[in-house]
Amino acid sequence: MTITKHISKFVPSGRRTWMSTAGIERAHRAILFPGQGSQYVGMGKDLYHLYPRSAKLVFDEANEALGYDLKSLIFEGHQEKLKLTENAQPAILTTSLAMLRVLELEFGLDVAKACGYALGHSLGEYTALVATKSLSLADAVRLVRLRGEAMTRSVSDLHTNTAMAALVVRKGKLLDLEDAIGEIKDMLPKGEVVELANINSSFQVVISGTSKGVDATSRILQQRQLAARAVDLPVSAPFHCEFMAEAAQVMKDALKSVTFQKPCVDVISNVTAKPYTTAEEIPEHLVQQITSAIQWSRSITYCKGQDVDEFICFGPGKVLSNLLKKEYPLDQIKSITSADDILHHAEEFY
Asked: Is the pTM of this model over 0.70?
């Protein structure tokens, strides 16, 4: 863990800039952005009113890009409507970026100088790409809205029930569990599907597929002492599995018209668990991500292999920070979920 301290200085505008006495903290810090499921009505509302020249502009830009009042849905809407995939994805992205933008414009955070890596869980990867100047906010919010619509539409004509379940992995059994799922897939009756959707940590994965396929797999993994228990997830579609193929094609077509820049900070792909090396490979991996397992645990492991020991989680909810705290209790893990969090933690980054 690094011990070099940050110092702050005032610039003529009165804004503080983030700088390091030795410039080495950057390599030891990563910024993270959440995926779907972290949304709640009222998120970001405090920022909107407190920071009109930063947070407010993010929500207003998202509204303009989408052509409807996303802001009102987030601040005063109904939870049932907000959690719909096509609404939750742009809402989470917008709120997460509003939090980051406050630190950039009000406190002088320079992402390129403040961290070595950026990563986001599933849709959060789009947020990370905006944060690192690879993708514009307007393009990102339109893309994730389309992504949510396409994911929902992918299963609208399926004549079978689908499900997702979170599994608590027994200690040291992650690789065995992955192998077992591959074996179980081939054992299932014709028409039944199960796939690994998220590998979130050494102790948590999510599986996706048909209801019978997910139920059978959960039962077998518990019988084999590879999973301690399974929890059904209240989701509208079986994400990150073969049923999302139609959505992947929709996004492949849409991404052809979007321009990506090389990120100013290494962004770690959910598919490869390694940083992008060129801007050209980004859309290809974003398409693959829709039907592939989210390699979150291996992405974090990559960061740890680069001596990262400080993680800053931007956005609603604390799912990512809680996973990290359990896996790496000695690391510095901060959650930026509200205006209070920004004021509490801002000084710590100087």
From this structure: yes
